[in-house]
Amino acid sequence: MQTKTGVLLAMISLFGCSPPPVSEQARRLGTQAFSQASWATASPEKRGEMVSSFLSQHDLKSLTAGDIKTLLGVPTAYYDYDENPAYLVGPSTVESGYGKVYLLAFMADKASGKMVAVKLIPEPR
User: Fold this and answer.
1) Are 88 and 73 in contact (CB under 8 A)?
2) How many domains is the chain built from?
């Protein structure tokens, strides 16, 4: 019985500490509709408000870094490798290793070039 309880507590601890999905994190920045035209002229704060809409409109696993750059323009930041497009987004009320903004980073599979993950750094609260 103690073993089952210990396993259950360990599972609750593991799953309870997992960050929410990026789509949920992005909603915390806003829910303004994404369009390439509005993104192209938007401030980092306004771009942050469009991230949730962008993520809901596009199947990231089918996109390449080139597709991301076509949709979002020239990356405004760097994340780990040149193949990973990254953009500074969100309000200037947050402190991160990238300045007073969030980093929206897309991670590409080096073999296929397809996107395998997306991150918002730090996690919006």
Assistant:
1) no
2) 1
Please say whether the beta carbons of 114 and 62 come within 8 A: yes
Question: Residue range 11-19: average pLDDT?
Answer: 50
Residue 13 belongs to some domain of the structure: no
Range of the structural domain that residue 29 is part of: 20-121
Q: Answer whether residue 9 shows pLDDT above 50.
A: no
Q: What percent of the chain stands above pLDDT 90?
A: 68
d(CA 59, CA 43): 24
Count of helices and strands (H, E) across the chain? 5, 4
What is the Cα–Cα distance from 102 to 64, expressed in whole angstroms? 22
**Does some domain include residue 66?**
yes
